[in-house]
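Here's what a typical entry looks like (CDP-Glycerol:Poly(Glycerophosphate) glycerophosphotransferase):
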Amino acid sequence: MRGDLVRKLLARVLTTGLAVLAFLVVALTGATGWGLALAVAALAATAWERRVRPSADGLAETVLVAAGILVGYARRLDDGFDPALAATALVLLGLVLLVGPLRQAGALEIRAANLPVRTWTPVVAARLGDALLVLLAVVALAAALALPAWTALAAALLVGAGCGAVALDLARRRFRPPAGGGPVGRALRRHQPEFLLHFSAPPGSEYQVTMWLPYLERIGRPFVVVLREPEFLATVAAATSAPVVLCPTLKALDEALVPSLRVAFYVNHGAKNAHVIRFNQLTHVQLHHGDSDKAPSANPVSAIFDKIFVAGQAAIDRYARAGVEIPADKFVVVGRPQVEAIEVRREPVTPPAHPTVLYTPTWTGHHADANYCSLPVAETLIRRLIDRGAAVILRAHPYTDKNPASARQLARLTELLAADRAKTGRPHLFGAAASRALTLTECVNRADALVSDVSGVISDWLYSGKPYAVTDTGADGEHFVERFPLAASGYVLRRDMSNVDDVLTGLLDADPKAAQRWAARTRYLGDFPADGYAEAFLAAARRELEPDWAVPAPRAEV
């Protein structure tokens, strides 16, 4: 996060500084060539800033650069008043003022992927800012070469025509919407989706939806993924063959929710879920994106859904333990289909001389009471594992970089593992090699034991039958297991790491809790056969889509 902030600040300084410098050099000195070169550099800095800060507003800088280029152009021509150059200036002024609003308006339009429809307006609107920067660079080049002003005017009119087409189409959509809906809505009606997956989350959360896509496809019914934030469109569309629709506004959402839909699935408790829950003709099903003893896993907001698919009885008990009253008939135990590819170790094995240990620290959470992150004390753990000759797979939570301190702590652990790998040749894995090149399932299958914070990783690991340790990062002490029952079948690592050696002995050598793990496995992940484990979820989802479906009874106010 610190590096990201530095990049943003550097981009801002470069953009503003170069724009001001270019204008001053052209306006106050005779170094027109240098001024034009600085203007092009300012345009490059502006383009970079838009990549680093997509919401950046560079209107003032763009005006300065455009003014500087035009002054330099007039000096190079040195022919007095040039009508073509004056017209170019007017067109550029109009473009500079209009491109931002048009881009913002286009961003509010519905967009689609994996659907046979072309939604050119929002795509072109999103590129208008880049087109303006390229146009200004072309005008600067024409000025540097002292080309006739009509060449710059022609280029400006070409970009202006694109802006005009976008503006007209946006106005038509806004003031004279087609009676049969837009092209995306018509295409969805032809597709006839029976259910949707609604997703809204902060950047970096796409794993919440991609983990469910293979199983939604296996239901065997047509469906659509509805996204609310644009940064997820490309990633999610690449992960499925189903239509993916971006609905940034309620109007766009109304167009996407076609009459054939019967069920809406959700993978988190995002605030924008309420935008879909208002459609009472749908059955609303919460899937969650993991199963853990964390406080958010017993969120009272779950009560607004018609059905809550849970991995096992432990999830139902978790709500009751937290005092969240939800009718029993809302819960459906479906297992955790994502674990079906995890290899199960049923029989005790001789502990390997050089075990592989998966360490999965979680993030700090949005609030202090949900901070289960062990990174502040993890260096002791990593050093002890290295001393025991273990190979470590360090797979951090995707949100780790949101906290600068956590990012620094993770970097320190990476340095330790990299140094030991260079010294001993042990196959430690960290960074992209552990979090991107491998899936969580692949990491689990490679490892002999797990050390994890309180998170959904433990529930997934539990399916393997292999030993695990849980870090107690709070002040619960002897009450830790009461708050987090899954820790009872694991080895609890104290926050001060005072028992790290004893825990690692139990984890990697003696393993006296093997029997407890198998009992916990049934409570947390359901009692389903390994062959066809995911069928429990598929069957439950299909039951919600039966032909005799009827509008569900109105939900009680919560």
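The radius of gyration is 29 Å.

More examples are in the samples folder.
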